[in-house]
Design brief:
Chain A: F-type ATPases have 2 components, CF(1) - the catalytic core - and CF(0) - the membrane proton channel. CF(1) has five subunits: alpha(3), beta(3), gamma(1), delta(1), epsilon(1). CF(0) has three main subunits: a, b and c. Chain A: It is a peripheral membrane protein. The complex is a heterodimer. Chain A is mainly β. Chain A is built from no helices and eight strands. In chain A, 0% of the residues lie in helices and 71% in strands. In chain A, strands 1, 2, 3, 4, 5, 6, 7 and 8 form an eight-stranded mixed β-sheet that branches. Chain B has two domains: 2-26 and 256-294, Helix Hairpins (Orthogonal Bundle), CATH 1.10.287; 30-201 and 217-254, ATP synthase, F1 complex, gamma subunit (Pyruvate Kinase, Chain: A, domain 1), CATH 3.40.1380. Chain B has a five-stranded mixed β-sheet, sandwiched between helices. In chain B, strand 2 (113-119), helix 3 (121-129) and strand 3 form a beta-alpha-beta unit. The longest helix of chain B is centred in the C-terminal third of the chain and has 79 residues, at 221-299. The two termini of chain B are 32 Å apart. The chains are: A mainly beta, B alpha/beta. The interface between A and B is medium-sized, with 27 and 32 residues.
C-alpha cells in the first residue's frame, strides 16, 4: 500500500516530515481523516490535535488552526504555531 | 614636553578600549547574523507552502476577495517602516528611513495621505524628534523577530485595511519598507505593496508544467480564502522582518569592523607621535646637558 508523505510546517520552522499511513485533523466541519489516494484537498483546520499514524505508532501535535493540503499523497499541514511535544521522534 | 607624551599615551589607552568594544560587537553581530540567516531559511517551507496554497485557490476560482481587490478611490496609504532598535549599524536605519521618505513623497504626489506604522526604536526616534505623527509602533525585537510579533502587526494591518477609510480612519493600501538581505555585503532597502494582495510566487518560481491538481475545498472556497489570505499577509510580513533583522546584523558587523580597523590605525598613529615626542625630549635633555657642561668648562 502506498504511503502518505507528510509535512508539518510551522511559521518559523519545519516541525516534522515523514511517512504515514493515515493523518487526521480537525476541520471546521469536524474530524477529517486522510488516507492514501485521497482526492486533492485544501482545507481549513481549527485549533486542535493532529494525529499522524505511521510506523512506530501514532504521533500527535497540537496546532492553533491552519491549513491542510493533500495532493498526490503529499499532505502538507500548515499552522502558525505548533506544539510538537507529543511528536517524539 | 612630558605633558605631550602623557596626552598621547592617554589617547592610545582610550582608543584601545574603544577598539575592544567594537571588536566584541563585531564578533557578536557576526555570530548572530548566521542565526538570522538560518531563521530566514527555516521560515521558507511555510512561506512556500502558503504561497502555493494561495496560488492554487487563485488559479481555480475567480473568487474576488476584499484583500485582493483594488479600492476605487485610494485616499490613505499605510507605510510600514522596518528599522532597527539600536544604532551602530552604519547607514542601516537611515537608508531605510530615506527610502520611506521617498515613498511618502511619491504617495503625496499621487494624492494619497500616508500613515506611518513604525517598527524599531530608530524609526520611532526619527518621528518623535521631528514631531511627526504615526499610527502605531512596535519596538524591542528588531534583531530577533518572533512570529507572534508579525502576527500582531499583520492582524492590525488587515483590520485597518478593512475599516472604512472616511469614518473609522482605515487605510486603502499598505506598503512595507524594509531592507532585503541580498548577501553579507549587500543589503538593499526595498518597498513592497502588501495590500491589496498581489499573489506572487516566492523567490523560486514553480517549474513549468507544475500544474495544480483540481482541489476540493473544505468547507468552501470563500472560507478557505478568508482564512488563508490573512495568514499569507502574516507570512510575508514575517519574511520581511526576518530579512531586515539579518540585514541589520550584517550592517552592524560591517560598521563595527571598520570601526575596529580605524581604531587600529589611530593607535598606530598615536604610538608614532608618542615615540617622536619621547625622542624629542631625550634630544633636548642631551643638548641641555652638553650645553651646560660646555658652559661650565668655559667658565673655568
Amino acid at each position: 500500500m502506498s504511503q502518505l508523505q507528510v509535512e508539518l510546517v510551522a511559521a518559523d520552522r519545519k516541525v516534522w516530515e515523514g511517512e504515514a499511513s493515515q493523518v487526521s485533523a480537525r476541520s471546521i466541519d469536524g474530524e477529517l481523516g486522510i488516507l492514501p489516494g485521497h482526492t486533492p484537498l485544501l482545507g481549513v483546520l481549527v485549533e486542535g490535535e493532529i494525529k499522524i499514524h505511521g510506523e512506530g505508532g501514532v504521533r500527535t501535535a497540537t496546532i492553533d488552526g491552519g491549513f491542510l493540503s493533500v495532493d498526490h499523497d503529499r499532505v502538507t499541514i500548515l499552522a502558525e504555531a505548533v506544539d510538537a511535544s507529543g511528536l517524539g521522534n | 614636553m612630558g605633558a605631550q607624551i602623557r596626552e598621547y599615551r592617554q589617547r592610545i589607552r582610550a582608543v584601545s578600549s574603544t577598539k575592544k568594544i567594537t571588536r566584541a560587537m563585531e564578533l557578536m553581530a557576526a555570530a548572530r547574523v548566521v542565526k538570522a540567516q538560518q531563521a530566514v531559511r527555516e521560515s521558507t517551507p511555510y512561506a512556500r507552502a502558503i504561497t502555493r496554497a494561495v496560488s492554487a485557490v487563485a488559479t481555480f476560482s475567480n473568487e474576488e476577495h476584499v484583500l485582493t481587490t483594488e479600492k476605487d478611490k485610494v485616499t490613505r496609504a499605510a507605510v510600514v517602516i522596518i528599522t532597527s532598535d539600536r544604532g551602530l549599524a552604519g547607514a542601516y536605519a537611515s537608508s531605510v528611513l530615506k527610502e520611506s521618505e521617498r515613498l511618502i513623497a511619491r504617495l503625496r504626489d499621487e494624492g494619497k495621505e500616508p500613515v506611518s506604522y513604525l517598527l524599531g526604536r530608530k524609526a520611532v526616534g526619527y518621528y518623535t524628534f521631528r514631531d511627526r505623527e504615526f499610527a502605531a509602533e512596535w519596538t524591542g525585537d528588531s534583531e530577533k523577530p518572533a512570529f507572534e510579533r508579525a502576527r500582531e502587526i499583520g492582524v492590525r494591518l488587515v483590520d485597518d485595511f478593512l475599516k472604512d477609510t472616511e469614518e473609522e480612519g482605515g487605510v486603502d493600501e499598505v506598503h512595507i519598507v524594509y531592507t532585503r538581505f541580498v548577501s553579507m555585503v549587500t543589503q538593499e532597502p526595498e518597498v513592497i505593496r502588501l495590500l491589496p494582495l498581489e499573489v506572487v510566487e516566492g523567490t523560486e518560481a514553480p517549474a513549468e508544467g507544475d500544474l495544480f491538481p483540481l482541489y476540493e475545498f473544505e468547507p468552501t472556497v470563500e472560507e478557505v480564502l478568508d482564512a488563508l489570505l490573512p495568514k499569507y499577509v502574516n507570512s510575508r510580513l514575517f519574511n520581511a522582518m526576518l530579512q531586515a533583522a539579518a540585514s541589520e546584523l550584517a550592517a552592524r558587523q560591517r560598521a563595527m569592523k571598520s570601526a575596529t580597523d580605524n581604531a587600529e590605525e589611530l593607535v598606530k598613529k598615536y604610538t608614532r607621535l608618542a615615540n617622536q615626542a619621547r625622542q624629542a625630549e631625550i634630544t633636548q635633555e642631551i643638548s641641555e646637558i652638553v650645553g651646560g657642561a660646555s658652559a661650565l668648562a668655559e667658565s673655568k
